[in-house]
Amino acid sequence: MSDGWITEHPILSIPKRRKIGFYWNDTRLRAHDGEVISSALFANGIHVFGHHVKDSSAQGIFCANGQCAQCVVIANGIPVKACMTRVEENMIVESVQGLPELPKVVDKFQFSKSKEIAADVLIIGGGPAGLSAALQLGERGINTLIVDDKDRLGGKLVLQTHKFFGSIEDCYAGTRGIEIAEILGDRIRSHRSVKVWLNSTALYVFSDKKVGVVTSGRNYRIVHPRVILNAAGARERSLVFPGNTLPGVYGAGAFQTLVNRDLVKPARRLFVVGGGNVGLIVAYHALQAGIEVVGLVEALPQCSGYKVHADKIKRLGVPLYTRHTILSANGNERVESITVGTLDDDFKPVAGTEKTYGCDTVLIAVGLDPVNEFYKEAEQAGVKVFAAGDAREIAEASTAMFSGKIAGMEIARELGREDGSIPRTWYQEASILNTPPGVEQAPDYDSFPEVDITPVFHCTQEIPCNPCVSVCPQGVISIPGDTLLGKPQIVNEDCIGCNKCVFICPGLAISLVDYRKDQDNPVVSLAYEVYNYEYKKGDLVLLTDYEGNPLHETVVLDTVISKASKKTQIIKVRVPKGIAKRVAGFKIQRDEVTVPKNEITLDKIPDDAIVCRCERVAAGEIRTLIRKGIRDLNQIKAITRAGMGACGSKTCENLILQLFKEQGVPPEEVTLSTIRPLFAEAPLGVFSNSSQ
Amino acid sequence: MNKSYDLIVIGAGSIGVPVATEFAKKGQSVLVIDSLSSPGQGQDKKAIGGIRATHSDKGKIVVCQRSIEICSQWEGMYGDDIQWRSNGYSFPAYTKKDEKILRDLMNIQQGFGLNIKWLSPEEYRELNPGINMEGLRGSTYSPEDGSASPLLFTQSCYFNAVEYGAEFKFNEAVVGFHIENSKITSVRTNKGTYHSSHVLNASGSFAREVSQMAGIDIPVDPDSHEAGISEPVEPFMGPMVVDIRKRPGSKNFYFYQSSQGQVVFCMTPDPPIPGRDNRATSKFLPMIARRMITIMPMLANLRVRRTWRGLYPMTPDGFPIVGRMRELENFYQAVGMCGQGFMLGPGMAELIYRLMTETYNSEDPEILKSFDPYRDFKGQEIFK
To answer: A108 vs B297: CB contact, 8 Å cut-off?
Structure first.
């Protein structure tokens, strides 16, 4: 497949990369130099990397984050995780059928002692929280070490092509996540007391208060910190349904990694499960990568993510099915379709409502859980530990930056390097940034004047966000009560049509209506960021209201993109006065993408759905044990091996707990499984720092 | 509570669970009490799974021979796969001194009728192809020893016990005994009081504390060993490797490949780490990694999945304490298994039944003598 890589993207720049050759089993394939094996395989259309030893089920990408071992392949004779290992020129990559063979080594080894490094502060995770904390520490000259398992700083920011909410001064609102990552990274590098280890995985906080870290997959180092900040972020929750482990079913975060970091086009047509911000954003990212989005299901009566995110994708033609759930992913060796159904008031699927849609990928975005092992381990070891960002509480990246900043200052105080107390306003602002979206209210279009030129806000919910207010040079826009929370309003008629508010609005929820040339047929300017679906002057567009309902068909009057617009395009259309203020966007997806296929009926009790994907343990096996009276996850593990696999129960523990709940077992009766080292697997050769 | 049991067992671990099965099977009423939330959650699940009869004294040899018999026939008897594998044990020697120690011991073991022989380096390499041949002088090999999953064994045994009618109380800690006329009449827990005609202390690393509640001190003190397990790989190993050499920070260490393809490994720290601290230390992996790669270089590419730290309830001489207390005539000990509770358990359960019902066979008196709670503890087990 020649179109396996993304060659154009409205936001991301596509670097020129050297092509290299490698082997997949006996076939020679092309890859980009420096790309991880899994992405090279995906770009070549290969999604099945091997078959499980227990039941020969197809294995492929699941976490794309080095946390599970479903993508294991043999690279030059050695079993490796494909998502964490770079492909090399002429590398022989082989699929794993059953168990991998341990390569024979006859050479002798030289051992060297693990380097032991002292640090005042060890920050695990170089994402928005960790970096914000490090800035506070760096400003005070505190000896700080950041370890991060990726090849660049920024954590999940490097996957975010959309603009951020919040306020400009607190959290770079209106700037794209990928750009915030660069800004924070540059600021970190200016602090000499902050050291950064990239490609470095923290494995465990040992009882002797030392942290084992594998760097570059080769060296084992022991860090001896005075204080640890756990800023390791979050992991994605999984779901149990038939077909949930088919290659092609994976997390929204894994998808963003493939698309926005590795610039691979892993799907042609996908379906999203979950209408929180992550699900809504990932649908948008898919469109930006030129991937069709068949639909999105959300179990609740309305999406829990920001309404502007939901509206944004609805306008582009993605149907959102609320009160719906996934019933199964269907296919033989990989996903060929998804079956969804309606839920009743008790969240039970309603028989007869099943609909099946064709797609090759199902993205699961049903929430995140904090990566909190390091915190617990540090507590047990008696090391002073703080947490920030998602590792502390799941929230937006803007909140993560703020909680990192607060943690940084708390740590400085702990170390006696800061006498001042933490400003109370910081906590207030952090709590404002973390406010859930308010009640939805339809836009009050009558409140906007119909003379000269005016911005129109299609913002229907109070969310913590105000860059439009900050950026307006004329003071036209204000939020009542001078808070971040609240909907923007027009307070004067001095708009000069500079488009700055249109460009910066993270929800793409501001249009500009210009009555100056033709009062009865004003020109509407709309923000557009998916211009890989290209619209040129003269092209026909179907305009929609803020929620994607069709309003009017017309032709594009003009398109504008400039340096000031920061990669947001303006599409101009002329429309009758009566609908001008209601025009909020236009549809880009064809209807045929989103229509269901023939309907299929389902087995009502998916006992064969896989709960533990590492060890292939099905829901039925675990249900039987729960019904037998077992209440200890460790006992379930002993009997079934569920939770004993490579990921260390990170994926299945929640799912098993759901089964307990379903069987009516109160949570306080359930004993959770024990956390043990290691966070990720590493070869014995690494621990001995051996070289041949 | 009026019900009185024939036997109360304190501890649902390597000894307690098989004992419950044995007694329940023979129609006795048994109650097992454990402070943890399910069977085998103390040190039993920390066992690496090796089962050998090749010890240095008759007691442990005979008990473990029976354990091997039971484990190898388990699936046929009860239908549950416990991953028994007759992979054998080997003790390779790299020094003249070690060779002598091993050969001398082998002679004793052969005297007890054990199947153990000496292999040349080349013969040994046939069994464990990755072994480092440099300086290798040969190895003992006992093909009838083997391994099984402690997790699966204990769970299967537990469900059998329940089926035979044994009762279990989990999340319940023993807090004391009611004693009358040199007899325990009831066992008190944090949740209730239970009556029984016999009481067995099988509380592993808590043996001393539990016994002290009955006013009896027994010399059992835990120390800790760390262990780990790798990802599964295609079978490449034959017998378990036990390296008896001393290295800075450690005494012997051992590893084998389970029937699932995972390599399980464990090391004896030097000096011993007394106490009940269960948390992993940063020293273990670098130390054992170096030793494992030295003796089998191909292990350098083997990825470690998980590690843990388990307790060896040690006695002064390295032999278990099994027997009836003189001070309290219905109080029995089956403690101080010195890290071998899993391999001793199945055979020991049958011995304990014969002990408590006084239905001895011809060998029992001699065996029980070496486990006697009132011995002088001056001897020394050669390989603990």
So the answer is: yes
